[in-house]
Amino acid sequence: MSEQTITKKLCNVCNKEKTKGIKVYTAFICSDCEQEMIQTEPGDENYQYFVDRLKVINQLTQFS
Q: Bridge-partner residues for 22, per DSSP?
């Protein structure tokens, strides 16, 4: 039986270590945050939070 190493990455949205997600430029967004962002409408209270977190990701890539 082969051992599989599970790598945890720090989500740039929720700041929690997760194993599943997507890479956007140099940032990692966990599957939970990705799904929540997809389902968030502009009028929802979390909308601005996600916009602000994505701005930080954009700023990270400008200095890479």
A: 29
